[in-house]
Amino acid sequence: MIEVSQITKKYGRKRVLDEATFTADKGQITCLVGINGVGKSTILKAIMGLTTISSGQILIDGQRLEPKLYEKIVFIPDTITMPPNMKIGDAMLFMNDFYPNWNVKRAFELLSFFKLKVQDRIGDLSKGNAAKMNLLLGLALDADYLLMDEPFSGIDIFSREQIANVFTTHLIEDRGVIITTHEIQDIEHLIDKVVLLDQGRVLKEFSAEEVRMKEGKSVVDVMREVYQA
Ligand SMILES: Nc1ncnc2c1ncn2[C@@H]1O[C@H](COP(=O)(O)OP(=O)(O)OP(=O)(O)O)[C@@H](O)[C@H]1O
């Protein structure tokens, strides 16, 4: 389990996270939701140790983040981190050389799932295929937790569907996923838990299935209630 407890983050005098608290379980998809600038990406970066926090605590399976835990978590950013001249196959070889937890079998399964080709140059990929390649590079690593920042951002409906479909396959397995997205309707049916954020604070944390079953509401219905109240 990832436990985020009362984390606060300031940039200068600006407080961008304000005692944010939530948990994300293994085997579940937890979605961080909120309008632009509420602090979703900052939370993911804080979990990864890519940004410092002013106070609070983050535990991964009961432990504070330290180098030996890095293999447990993967951060999949919304931008390509590989050089544009590289081919997809070269990027896969690079990952294989540098990451002991690179899973070659899963990498090729993802390549075929996303209909990508090893000979394609990264700089020539469409936005949708670039997002898929980013996911391939992250999901092929054997890690217990996957943090995904806006995997659907700026891509067409068919690519969004294909990306959403990966969540229903064994390629995600029983790993814990924390995802940020503005395209909630694309994955609403797949999400286990929703964390609603506003100005760096957690307004509400709820089980998507429970509000569906008990209250007959969709995640978007709850968002409307909370944000338009
Ligand atoms: N390096 C930085 N220096 C100063 N302020 C920053 C920095 N990075 C982020 N911020 C501010 O922190 C706040 C939270 O940013 P963050 O990127 O976490 O929001 P977000 O919810 O992910 O937004 P979006 O939905 O637009 O991606 C914003 O007001 C942003 O301007």
Automatic annotation (TrEMBL):
Gene3D superfamilies: P-loop containing nucleotide triphosphate hydrolases. GO terms for molecular function: ATP binding. Keywords: ATP-binding, Nucleotide-binding, Transport. Signal peptide: none annotated. The keyword Nucleotide-binding applies. PROSITE patterns: ABC_TRANSPORTER_1, ABC_TRANSPORTER_2. It comes from the Bacteria. Residues 2-224 form the ABC transporter domain. InterPro entries: AAA+_ATPase, ABC_transporter-like_ATP-bd, ABC_transporter-like_CS, ABC_Transporter_VariousFunc, P-loop_NTPase. This is ABC transporter ATP-binding protein. It comes from Paenibacillus hexagrammi.
